[in-house]
Amino acid sequence: MTEHNPDALSASPALAAAPAGAARATPRPPGELATFREKVEAGRFVITVEVDPPHGLSARRAIQGAQLLREAGVDAINVGDSPTAKVRMSPLAMSVLLQREVGVDIVMHYTTRDRNAMAIHSDMVGAHVLGIRSILCLRGDPPSVGGYTDIVGVWDVSAVGLMRFLKLANDGVDFTGKSIGRQASFFIGGSANLNADPLETELRLMRRKVEAGAHFFMTQNVFDAKVLERFLDKAAKFGRPIIVGVLPLHNSRHAEFLHSQVPGMSLPDGVRERMRRAGEERGPAEGAAMARDMIAVCREKAAGVYLVPSFGRYDLAAELVAETKSAASS
To answer: What is the secondary structure of 140-200 as a DSSP string?
Structure first.
């Protein structure tokens, strides 16, 4: 559920009529934290899950997955922006659709790969008016990663530059210094690669992101508790909440693919051997067990976790969300 504001989707008569079955907002008890931002800023351990937009015209599976996650108690849905440079529905369209149909808070991923400064300004103003406030600012993988050899990236603005855009909007002006009428209220997120080697280079980039306006960080997926702890210790100096990426592995082939083919992903030998020993039949259960172990570490040391379902396994993600919420309340 997004925070109420005069520019939100429901404020527009033309857009107010949601389709039958759309989620309806329910009044919250006094003092209850409703939005992702409120929970993060209050120091509440949060759990979010990625729901990727579809490649085609039907978003039914994504909506059903988001509904399952909402029922499990997820704090926000992360909406990807053509992850791994494979073309999908725009993140803004998907974010508004899930917000309207499911009534769940959104963290919208937004890459600067595909847009120039004018397009970015237009999208961000549109996102704000439609009630999308939490933006994860990303550079985006090159189109070649997705197999598009005849498409070039734009990158008129860097991820750090996008954060500066949003910070300026929060001050009430656009990137040229022209007034946008009033101050925006974006909750600005930055990515962090805790698997980077050397880590010092990544920490310097994080410092630039903090200076540009980042309010929180979301990390790459991690599979090694020691790597996570080392990163969190060094990143503590920035004073920003860090939400850790956790990806349940499916089988050995999945683990090897992530390790060798996905930029920024690194799986320890021990994790890959554990998945090999598990075999095809026990692979999903072993991957889920490792995800639970990592979530337990994060509960002690991080601001939250960001689950990335493998192969659309929203049922497993919902199970992990419900378990984590239950553990947090006990």
So the answer is: ---GGGGT-TT-----SS-HHHHHHHHHHHHHTB-TTS-B-SS----EEEEEE-TT-SSHH
Read off the pLDDT of residues 168-206 as tens digits, 9 standing for 90 and up: 999 999 999 999 999 999 999 999 999 999 999 999 999
Instruction: Report the predicted TM-score, pTM, of the whole model to 2 decimal places.
Output: 0.89
Q: How is residue 285 written in tokens?
A: 């259960």
Pairing of strands 106-111, 134-138: parallel
Domain 34-329 has CATH 3.20.20.220: yes
What is the DSSP pairing of strand 242-246 with strand 304-307?
parallel
Rg (CA), the chain: 19
Residue-wise pLDDT tens digits, 123-171: 999 999 999 999 999 999 888 888 898 888 899 999 999 999 999 999 9
DSSP letter, residue 8: S
Question: Domain extents for the chain?
Answer: 34-329
